[in-house]
Design goal:
By secondary structure, this protein is of the alpha+beta class. The protein has 7 helices and 18 strands.
Length: about 375
């Protein structure tokens, strides 16, 4: 080979190499020109993803991010992207949710307890939660117990109160309100019934009591004839005495009101003692010395019109001879003169005349002498 030929070949190689570099650089430049940077936010964390892809799926692949069946992605995977595209991915979290004792599993894309409650549509104003509302929900899942606030009407012994409770059962409400239900009381609904908003809880107070009282037992009167006494006269030989009966009642009270009363026992503590009265059977001598000749019929006609039961307008003077009660009793009369016959009233009038003359009858007394 000649020296010229070698020189020519050596000179060509640098030129060829330069052309190759230019071609490669041009291709790289073209490739770089097709790349784009897209904003990707995953669970609130922003990152910039460099990709040559044209869809959302390409961006996720470039960022090594997979989308699960419970995740929330916007826009969809087949949507074309530009440098101005913003992709948001919220990953699903399984939450074991227990509301007022009822449990279920729900998937949420929320990152906090408060946001999760909003997503499941649970109004939790006044509710008691097992975790703080601001607490983050991890990807591995979370358990949350919610006790909602309920308005309840509590009727205790007839008194009505509107109360609020976060209890799960009726028994929780009673414990919160310090209401003790005794064995004899009635509770509607039962203590194990789930507590609901707007519910009416009724406690009927039922009391059983014993009542003991004493009542008198009346005595009878025994009348005995006495031939040594005049008719119309009586004498108490023995005073009567009432007996005593002790009774025990079983009472049932509902909300403080008596609804039933039943006699349990009745025991005679002391027996009554009968009264004994002697009454006269001997005929009374109605004659009074020095008075029998007087005109008693005329006096009675003047005083009362001869009416045995005559009573003055004021009620003071009574009977045939218009006795006052004090005067009647003063001459041995018993009771009321209008309850006695003519012989008895005339006899007492004779005794009065024997004592006082005709003065007790200032107007009609002169008739005695007619």
């Amino acid at each position: 080979m000649s020296v010229r030929s070698l020189t020519t070949r050596v000179a060509v190689r640098p030129v060829a190499l330069g052309l190759s570099v230019l071609v490669l650089w041009g291709g790289h430049a073209t490739w770089e020109a097709t790349a784009k940077t897209v904003a990707l936010t995953v669970d609130g964390r922003l990152q910039q993803v460099r990709t040559h892809g044209s869809t959302v799926a390409d961006v996720l692949e470039a960022a090594h991010v997979k989308v699960g069946p419970h995740d929330l992605l916007a826009p969809a995977t087949d949507v074309a992207v530009t440098p101005q595209t913003s992709i948001v991915l919220r990953r699903g979290r399984m939450m074991a949710l227990t509301v007022d004792g009822t449990s279920r599993q729900v998937w949420v894309t929320a990152m906090s307890v408060n946001e999760a409650l909003q997503q499941v549509g649970l109004r939790a104003e006044g509710a008691v939660l097992s975790a703080d509302r601001s607490r983050a929900i991890p990807l591995k899942g979370f358990s949350l117990d919610v006790r909602t606030r309920k308005s309840v009407q509590l009727l205790d012994g007839g008194r009505v109160r509107r109360v609020f409770s976060n209890g799960v059962k009726v028994s929780d409400l009673l414990a919160e309100q310090r209401v003790v239900v005794r064995r004899t009381d009635q509770l509607v609904p039962t203590a194990t019934t789930p507590l609901r908003n707007g519910q009416i809880v009724r406690v009927t107070r039922v009391d059983g009591r014993r009542l003991v009282d004493t009542v008198p037992i009346g005595y009878s009167t025994i009348r005995r004839a006495d031939s040594s006494m005049y008719k119309g006269d009586t004498k108490t030989l023995r005073d009567g005495r009432v007996g005593t009966l002790r009774r025990t009642f079983a009472l049932r009270l509902v909300n403080g009101k008596l609804t039933h009363k039943r006699l349990v026992t009745s025991v005679r503590v002391s027996a009554p003692v009968s009264k004994i009265v002697a009454y006269g059977t001997k005929s009374r001598p109605y004659g009074v010395a020095g008075t029998d000749h007087l005109n008693w019929w005329a006096l009675a006609q003047c005083e009362s019109g001869n009416r045995l039961r005559a009573v003055s307008s004021g009620g003071t003077y009574r009977g045939l001879y218009q006795f006052s009660l004090s005067t009647w009793h003063g001459v041995g009369g018993k009771g009321d003169p209008i309850d006695w016959g003519r012989d008895e009233q005339t006899y007492r009038a004779k005794l009065l005349y024997k004592r006082s003359g005709s003065r007790p009858w200032p107007t009609c007394g002169k008739r005695l002498y007619s």
